[in-house]
Design goal:
The complex is a heterodimer. By secondary structure, chain A is of the alpha/beta class. Helix content of chain A is about 35%, strand content about 30%. The longest helix of chain A is centred in the middle third of the chain and has 16 residues. Chain A is elongated. Classes of the chains: A alpha/beta, B alpha/beta. At the A-B interface, helix 2 of A face helix 1 and helix 7 of B.
């Protein structure tokens, strides 16, 4: 078994509304799995089913090959998008309470808290009330609550919202470190640059259906169009452009560069190789810029959602 | 995993440590006692007011009944005409003028009596004046018919019916009052407890929703555990508060009556006179004896046990509904429409208790309402001091428990869905849809 978590054709209805329609995803062990989708696609419903907050109507969820049991809450850490803490409760008491709900003993929780408080540069907040903290500070506490019981599966729903760039980076590094230490992370976000940066695997849910999933690099390979972005320097711009346009399918391109005279995206047929293109170009002009266009996660997201 | 003790502990501690809770706990008895003291003082002030009333009696025979007392001075006017009397009374700033018109034949024709004053007199003043005149008139008539008034006075008698059950226990009227007091207190206590602490549960559910912590908690514990933990923790806090209130209230009353003891006894002087007078009377002394005895004759064991069971059952029944309401809405202002169906049966129970149980504790209405689960805790608690067969108590309690299990299931369904719903106020139709989720 290489998958830590498998959702097997999970469906969920709320009255007449079908929130999830036979969605299956597999989250490989030790990966950072991006769960993507527009608002209202059903991501949160799926996450809640994994957390056993709601039960699926049909289908099942396997954790380590076993159907989910109530005890599995110990193995899952969940940072919901709608998050908050008891406002008038002291930080220390609150975190201890939440950790004990996850099955930690008080002593163990205290010990680990000390470690995390130091690591995230949280000073003497123990006796402060949540309402006295800033939003970012409260988010840090929330993050600690999520990871304190060392779950093998971590679920983050928009983990970076509310953090300034410095703290967002801090949290990002913590997530990567937790992954390196063996945790598996499910990561739901709209911020495509963090998907690009963090995720190994993604699944895209749209209108209650899974429309795409797999390894991010595989998906990119699948979505790439054999297009190359080129920048050429030549005295006779018009002639060179026309010669290229005769031979290849050309699209306009914009990118920043120093004094390039010809900028274009060139789409190759399946039987053309990039070397052929390159040698053709070098024979016509001086090549300053030559790079394969790889679709970004954002492009894939938008394209897939539009096509569906 | 059973997190119930942990949740109960947190709910209890947050309630008890809450500043407004602490203030309420210690200030309420002060306010209550102060309020009672103020009311007592004010009513004393009112009684103390001295009044002078002038009487113009044209018949000449009635004036002798107006004898001045401590607070009321009567001035008998004799010679003036009505107009001059009015002027005189106004200039003297008397409270009022009682004018009894001349009547030829007092035996057959009632005199016309009028009272002139700036402020309209209170009912008690008027009835006391009327009583005086009526008494004199009927005495006069009896006398004219040749009846010896003194003999009539001497013939007056006072009967107290002694009560005894077939098994030989002596009871008394005091016994009934005592039962009423016990039942009423128990029922009313439950009513107050449900309203105060039910609301507290509701607010705590809403707080969890608005602070958005609910999803984190719910990913660790089952909603029903959270709900039960809340209900139990809050009721423990409530019991703590109630106990402190009772103790503090007791101490404060003792202290106050020690400090103002003299003035308090002065305040109550008429009643106290009656009591001390009554104590001299052997029959009434025996009555008090019987009252004490009937206190010990109350089914105390049954009362205490039934109180615990019905109190807990009734409280849980209602507080689960309060929790469900809290889960269904986003803020306290939206709770109104859902509160009505909860409060109606509760208020109905109290009214049935007050109007029917007192009249006939074992009548059809009382009996039926002591079985209907939403009214049974209050009504049954009021009935029990009058002696309710054990099978009825057990049956009523079983119905209560059955309903309680159902409402908890029902409330948990709404709770489970509701706590994750934000933004809009649900309709009843939607609530019923949630049950199927």
């Amino acid at each position: 078994m290489n998958d830590l978590l498998v959702a097997d054709s999970v469906s969920k209805n709320f009255g007449d509304f079908r929130a999830l329609n036979a969605v299956s995803v597999s989250v490989p062990k030790g990966s950072i799995f991006g769960l993507l989708g527009p608002n209202g696609a059903g991501k949160t419903t799926l996450i809640r089913i994994i957390n056993q907050i709601t039960m699926p109507d049909t289908g099942q969820v396997l954790l380590d090959g076993e159907p989910l049991k109530p005890e599995d809450i110990r193995n899952i850490g969940y940072l919901p998008e709608e998050r908050g803490l008891y406002k008038s409760m002291k930080v220390g008491e609150q975190v201890l309470y939440l950790a004990q709900l996850k099955g930690l003993t008080k002593q163990e929780a205290k010990k680990r808290l000390k470690y995390w408080f130091e690591k995230l540069e949280i000073g003497d907040w123990w006796n402060k009330k949540i309402q006295e903290l800033s939003k970012g500070q409260a988010q840090k506490i929330q993050f600690i609550v999520t990871v304190l019981h060392q779950p093998k599966l971590l679920i983050f729903d928009e983990p970076f919202s509310g953090f300034d760039p410095i703290n967002a980076n801090l949290i990002k590094d913590e997530i990567l470190q937790l992954r390196d230490e063996g945790a598996t992370v499910i990561f739901s976000t709209h911020r495509m640059e963090s998907v690009e940066e963090l995720c190994d695997h993604i699944a895209l849910i749209h209108k209650s259906n899974k429309v795409l999933d797999g390894k991010l690099t595989d998906i990119k390979r699948q979505y790439k169009t054999n297009t190359f972005e080129v920048g050429l320097q030549t005295d006779s711009i018009e002639r060179v452009s026309n010669e290229i346009k005769e031979k290849f399918e050309v699209l306009p391109a914009t990118f920043r560069n120093l004094n390039d005279d010809v900028k274009m995206n060139i789409k190759l047929d399946a039987n053309d190789s990039s070397n052929d293109l390159l040698s053709f170009l070098t024979s016509k002009a001086e090549v300053h810029h030559f790079v394969e266009v790889i679709p970004s996660a954002s492009d894939i997201f938008i394209q897939t959602v539009k096509n569906n | 995993m059973n997190h119930l003790p942990l949740i109960i502990k947190r709910e209890y501690l947050t309630k008890v440590k809450n500043k407004s809770f602490i203030v309420m706990t210690f200030v309420s008895p002060l306010i209550m006692v102060a309020l009672i003291a103020v009311v007592a003082y004010l009513s004393q002030l009112n009684n103390d007011k001295d009044r002078s009333i002038s009487v113009l009696d044209e018949t000449g025979v009635l004036s002798e009944v107006f004898v001045s007392t401590e607070h009321t001075t009567y001035t008998i006017l004799t010679t003036e005409s009505l107009e001059t009397a009015k002027e005189l009374v106004k200039s003297k700033e008397d409270f009022g003028l009682l004018y009894i018109e001349k009547s030829i034949d007092l035996t057959n024709v009632l005199p016309r009596v009028k009272f002139y004053s700036d402020e309209s007199p209170s009912l008690s003043i008027m009835s006391s004046l009327e009583e005086k005149i009526e008494k004199k008139l009927s005495d006069t008539r009896l006398f004219n018919d040749g009846v010896d008034i003194e003999k009539i006075e001497a013939s007056k008698s006072n009967i107290t019916i002694a009560q005894e059950t077939f098994t030989g226990e002596k009871t008394s009227k005091i016994d009934s009052y005592l039962k009423l007091a016990f039942g009423g207190a128990a029922g009313y206590l439950l009513f107050m407890f449900i309203i105060i602490y039910g609301n507290m549960i509701m607010r705590s559910v809403i707080e969890e929703k608005t602070s958005r912590i609910i999803e984190i908690i719910i990913s660790s514990v089952k909603p029903i555990q959270l709900m039960m933990g809340k209900i139990i923790g809050t009721s423990l806090a409530g019991i703590t508060q109630f106990t402190i209130w009772v103790i503090l209230g007791g101490i404060l009353t003792l202290v106050l009556s020690a400090i103002f003891g003299i003035s308090l006894s002065e305040l109550q002087s008429p009643q106290q006179d009656i009591i001390s007078e009554a104590m001299k009377n052997p029959e009434i002394a025996q009555e008090v004896q019987l009252g004490l005895q009937s206190f010990f004759n109350l089914p105390i064991g049954n009362l205490v046990i039934a109180f615990l069971f019905f109190f807990i059952g009734g409280y849980f029944l209602y507080s689960s509904l309060y929790a469900a309401v809290g889960a269904a809405v986003d803020n306290e202002t939206d709770t109104q429409q859902f509160m009505m169906p909860i409060l109606m049966p509760l208020i109905l129970a109290v009214y049935v208790g007050i109007f029917t149980v007192i009249e006939d504790p074992h009548g059809t209405v009382s009996t039926v309402f002591s079985f209907i689960p939403f009214t049974s805790p209050v009504v049954m608690l009021m009935r029990i001091p009058f002696g309710v067969p054990i099978w009825q108590q057990v049956l009523s309690f079983l119905i209560l428990v059955g309903t309680f299990v159902f409402t908890v299931w029902f409330a948990a369904k709404i709770y489970r869905v509701g706590i994750l719903m934000y933004g809009k106020k649900p309709t009843y139709k939607e609530l019923f849809k949630w049950i199927k989720y």
